[in-house]
């Protein structure tokens, strides 16, 4: 695994451009390191992180890394989302994206504390996300959706952003890029792509707390009024449907069977004449406490077909 990235690789910035990476913490190991992840040994070059080790082996559990993109591309990690937590013998729980790969480190992706931390943090991300997958331009190619499916999210414990009165209007002003801030998870990838890679200086984070949002450095209210040159790099790195190419939104909303406006992730069912079963396995043993169908059946034995037919 290449790990030749150093801070000096960050492109120069003009004074007028607010950087996305300048405040990133220093990350990566100071030397080559051999790390054990779920019993698999992997040797990494200088500058590697625990996430580099995790992605190099076949881990027991899926480890999302929603605010990390590609350090060689000078984008992330920002250590914001904490969906990448793993357990280490020496340091306990750590964010794998930014923790250095220390020689001799023993990492467990399936430790109870690590899976619980990732689950809680993913649910926190989902709690501020408009989970309307079926009308989303990134449906089927969304990292948040992938993470939710891979970790069997059933009912995000903190709910989702589902209050239409609280929705921020979609910015449809650009001819090329649509911004739906209701789907933004504030990962900062677009800011770094725009400022530190393209050096265009269009995007930045503005506001604070619950009001934090993607904004424009020239103070514009809309993408059309910003200094955006429509290079599209921000769209490429956005993990969700917050930044989407214009014109292909509809084409991207169909591929996943079982997803409807009501169920979005988690309560999805692939339905054929012979087989009706959850698209994502149920987490809870007792389905009766959920609002959806009450079966955990993956063999088609105990669930009520009539209940499934009632489900959207
Ligand atoms: S498309 Fe516009 S906002 Fe996005 S990276 Fe390029 S210049 Fe920046
Ligand atoms: S618009 Fe996309 S890339 Fe930018 S912060 Fe929001 S989720 Fe991340
Ligand atoms: S990917 Fe590690 S904190 Fe977001």
From TrEMBL:
Residues 1-30, 255-312 are annotated as: Disordered. Keywords: 4Fe-4S, Iron, Iron-sulfur, Metal-binding, Plasmid, Repeat. Residues 31-113 form the 2Fe-2S ferredoxin-type domain. Residues 113-152 form the 4Fe-4S His(Cys)3-ligated-type domain. GO terms for molecular function: 4 iron, 4 sulfur cluster binding; metal ion binding; oxidoreductase activity. It holds the Pfam family Fer4_7. It comes from the Archaea. SMART domains: NADH-G_4Fe-4S_3. Residues 302-312 have a biased composition (Acidic residues). Residues 273-289 have a biased composition (Basic and acidic residues). Residues 20-30, 260-270, 290-301 have a biased composition (Polar residues). Residues 175-194, 219-248 form the 4Fe-4S ferredoxin-type domain. PANTHER family: HYDROGENASE SUBUNIT, PHOTOSYSTEM I IRON-SULFUR CENTER-RELATED. This is 2Fe-2S iron-sulfur cluster-binding protein. It comes from Halocatena salina.
């Amino acid at each position: 695994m290449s790990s030749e990235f150093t801070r000096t690789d960050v492109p120069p910035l003009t004074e007028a451009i607010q950087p996305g990476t300048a405040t990133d913490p220093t990350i990566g190991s100071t030397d080559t390191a051999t790390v054990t992840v779920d019993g698999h040994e992997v040797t990494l070059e200088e500058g590697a992180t625990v996430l580099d080790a995790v992605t190099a082996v076949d881990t027991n559990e899926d480890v999302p890394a929603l605010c990390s993109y590609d350090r060689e591309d000078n984008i992330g990690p920002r250590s914001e989302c904490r969906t990448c937590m793993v357990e280490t013998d020496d340091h306990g729980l750590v964010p794998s994206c930014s923790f250095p790969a220390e020689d001799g480190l023993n990492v467990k992706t399936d430790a109870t504390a690590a899976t619980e931390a990732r689950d809680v943090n993913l649910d926190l991300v989902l709690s501020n996300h408009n989970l309307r997958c079926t009308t989303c331009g990134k449906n089927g190619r969304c990292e948040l959706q992938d993470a939710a499916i891979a970790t069997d999210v059933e009912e995000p414990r903190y709910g989702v952003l589902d209050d239409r009165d609280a929705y921020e209007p979609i910015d449809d002003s650009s001819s090329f890029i649509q911004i739906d801030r209701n789907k933004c998870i504030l990962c900062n990838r677009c800011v770094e792509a725009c400022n530190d890679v393209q050096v265009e200086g269009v995007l930045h984070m503005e506001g604070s707390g619950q009001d934090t949002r993607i904004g424009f450095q020239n103070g514009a209210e809309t993408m059309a009024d910003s200094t955006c040159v429509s290079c599209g790099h921000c769209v490429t790195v956005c993990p969700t449907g917050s930044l989407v190419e214009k014109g292909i939104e509809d084409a991207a909303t169909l591929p996943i069977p079982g997803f409807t406006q009501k169920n979005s992730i988690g309560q999805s069912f692939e339905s054929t004449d012979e087989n009706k079963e959850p698209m994502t396995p149920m987490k809870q043993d007792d389905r009766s406490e959920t609002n959806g169908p009450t079966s955990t059946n993956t063999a088609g034995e105990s669930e009520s077909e009539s209940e499934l037919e009632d489900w959207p």
